[in-house]
Design a protein that fits this description.
Blueprint: H1 5-16, E1 19-23, H2 27-32, H3 39-53, E2 59-62, H4 65-68, H5 72-87, E3 91-98, H6 102-113, E4 123-126, H7 136-145, E5 148-154, H8 161-164, E6 167-168, E7 171-172, H9 173-188, E8 198-202, E9 226-228, H10 241-245, E10 252-256, H11 268-283
Helix pairs in contact: 3-5, 6-7, 7-9
Amino acid sequence: MPESFSRKIEAVFSKYGQLCVGLDPHSELLEAEGLPDTVEGARSFSFQLLDQLDDVIGIIKPQVAFYERFGSKGFAVLEEVCSEATKRGFLVIADAKRGDIGSTMSAYAEAWLGKASPFVVDALTVSPYLGTGALSSAISLASERGKGLFVLCATSNAEGKGIQQSTSNGQTVAAAVANEIEALNRVSAQAKTKFGTAGLVIGATVNLKEYGVDTLNTSEHYKSLILAPGFGAQGASLSAARTIFGSNADNVIYTVSRSALRNGLDQTRQTITSDKNELALALGA
């Protein structure tokens, strides 16, 4: 049986810490680095970034859309980047936010997490807004394959508030998603692991209490892993990691993207090393 996703995460946390860097080759970043806004530019950017991050951090998060915009050639580059990153020992989270029902959701899961998948990734971001139960086949496949899912729960975009903070039966939609994912996790949980197969995406800039997700991870059996975008350019500070997430701070993957390049692509290693130190200090690691 493949090693569980939880074991992989635990090993990365132990060796490299909890920082993750997003690979977002969008037009502005490519232009800022003097690269063409082409599939070749995206490839050059991605491999230069991998070189800078090698043996500094353990998790990367390619944003699929910035490769997909180049069509089949972009997907070919994404395949190459994910494969190379895996060979170098990175844990790869594909930020694709897929979500559907029935056989279509199963097909998405096979495309990204299946044995014959063209994309060599460890986890996938997914959307629960066609019903959290619709993700059950993806969670089952992920569990079987030693992969992970990160389910959108409380996102930092302003447009999400109206839906995610709305209440029904005494709880917010975001809280309902978190609770349902916990239930699905129990079905696929592997014994003696810290985290379940499915984690949650919770933006670092949201007020957890307003979204009803400030009391997560009360289970004695495992913890819900949290993927937290929003640090750096979006306003959240790594130095406030424990203030933001409280008792869940040790269960969070802290993600930076644009801010990783604030001193230039060729200085990313030094920049991320500084960010790692800031986060470690905040967490008391």
